[in-house]
Amino acid sequence: MLTESDILTALRDCYDPVLPCNIVDLGLIRSITITPDLEAPGSNIPGVPQKHRIHIQLTPTNQTEDANAQLQAQITNRLAGLEAVSHTTITLLDEPTWTPLNITPAGRKILGLDGHPHLVQIR
Fold it and tell me: What 3 state SS string does the chain have?
């Protein structure tokens, strides 16, 4: 069974186009929805693994068209590598806007901000 944790693990391989950190630890992911794909080839055939449709909502750090296209391509390509995923859709949200306060403790460490709990400005 495909879980949200499986998706988040895979998404740690996807990096923000501007900041040198993965999109999970930057706090870009707002929601992940996993639904069985009943129309996928092999559905309901015993022994064939269930395929799933994934819908991800995220808030990008950078609202440029090129950065958004790169981010979407990374996510789609990475999740296509999971056997249980048949299709991925991505919704880029304008609100709530991303701020450095969304960065996880692991992300702060990756970016070298872990020793500075109140430092949120990124060059």
Answer: CCCHHHHHHHHCCCECCCCCCECCCCCCEEEEEEEECCCCCCCCCCCCCCCEEEEEEECCCCCCHHHHHHHHHHHHHHHHCCCCEEEEEEEECCCCCCCHHHCCHHHHHHCCCCCCCCCCCCC
